[in-house]
Amino acid sequence: MGTVIEAANKDTNGSVLNKNPTVVFVLGGPGSGKGTQCANVVEHFGFTHLSAGDLLRAEIKSGSENGTMIQNMIKEGKIVPSEVTIRLLQQAIKDNGNDKFLIDGFPRNEENRAAFERVTGIEPAFVLYFDCPEEEMERRLLSRNQGREDDNIETIRKRFKVFLDSSLPVINYYDAKGKVRKVDAARPVEEVFESVKAIFGPKNEKAD
Ligand SMILES: Nc1ncnc2c1ncn2[C@@H]1O[C@H](COP(=O)(O)OP(=O)(O)OP(=O)(O)O)[C@@H](O)[C@H]1O
Ligand SMILES: Nc1ccn([C@H]2C[C@H](O)[C@@H](COP(=O)(O)O)O2)c(=O)n1
Ligand SMILES: [Mg+2]
């Protein structure tokens, strides 16, 4: 258990994506280290990293008609409607030549989860869950210094509540299906990555 990376994608809807990629959902509270560890997985295992939050922030910058709505929702720590986020994820998958993707920060709620499955027919190979106490996540977010509009204490508290109320149930859903690989994320970056490596498995490491 835990080292298998196999596409389990049900191409049930006439293949909206026209490809059948391996997808790993990367979940965990705000500041648990999802983006940091995804960068390591990209380097060692050749996945493409798609962060739903990064795609939404890029959409704001692009001047899209949805930009103001997305910006307001992110400032409030709220979850953007699935149709917007899924369209961005689908486009990013289509535009990329790779066949294995880390989808970071998605699905964030039941609506995200059900809509993605319905629209793409993709089932994740597994869900990588970074488990971290709130105090540690708060410390990390307040010292992240990347100029994110949502890294202030008021929005951080709202994001924690959304994580508990809306995102944890999604993790529990996949846990009941035996798909969750939980990692203790409250350790130094290198130690966390040792656990991540064990999950992806030595046979999937990129040759140097
Ligand atoms: N294991 C760790 N120990 C200490 N600091 C860490 C660790 N992992 C990440 N960090 C730092 O914590 C901050 C948040 O990390 P990161 O951006 O990877 O989290 P995230 O889960 O992607 O957060 P968000 O959901 O807000 O995007 C960054 O400044 C990062 O350098
Ligand atoms: N599936 C998602 C992912 C992200 N968002 C919005 C709301 C989040 O607070 C924000 C930042 O995401 P992060 O970079 O922390 O993963 O982006 C969303 O609405 N839906
Ligand atoms: Mg992130």
Explain the overall architecture.
This protein has 208 residues and is of the alpha/beta class. The protein has a single domain (22-199), classed as P-loop containing nucleotide triphosphate hydrolases (Rossmann fold, 3-Layer(aba) Sandwich). The protein is 49% helix and 13% strand. It has helices spanning 34-45, 52-61, 67-75, 82-95, 110-120, 134-142, 153-176, 189-200; strands at residues 22-28, 48-51, 100-104, 126-131, 180-184. Strands 2-3-1-4-5 form a five-stranded parallel β-sheet, sandwiched between helices. Helix 2 packs across helix 3 (67-75). It starts with 21 loop residues before the first strand and ends in an 8-residue tail after the last helix. Mean pLDDT is 92; it is low at 1-15. Adenosine-5'-triphosphate (ATP) is lined by residues 28, 30-36, 53, 105, 140, 144, 188-189, 192.
Termini separation comes to: 26 Å
**What compounds are bound to the protein?**
adenosine-5'-triphosphate, ligand LCLUPRNS, magnesium ion
Overall domain count: 1
Q: Supply the CATH architecture.
A: 3-Layer(aba) Sandwich
How many beta-strand elements? 5
- Beta strand %: 5-15%
Outline the low-pLDDT stretches: 1-15
Tell me the name of the CATH class.
Alpha Beta
Mean pLDDT: 92
| Biggest sheet details | 5 strands, parallel
Strand order of the largest sheet: 2-3-1-4-5
CATH topology: the name is: Rossmann fold
- CATH homologous superfamily identity: P-loop containing nucleotide triphosphate hydrolases
GO molecular function: ATP binding; UMP kinase activity
Subcellular location: Cytoplasm; Nucleus
GO biological process, one term: UDP biosynthetic process
Keywords: ATP-binding, Cytoplasm, Kinase, Nucleotide-binding, Nucleus, Pyrimidine biosynthesis, Transferase
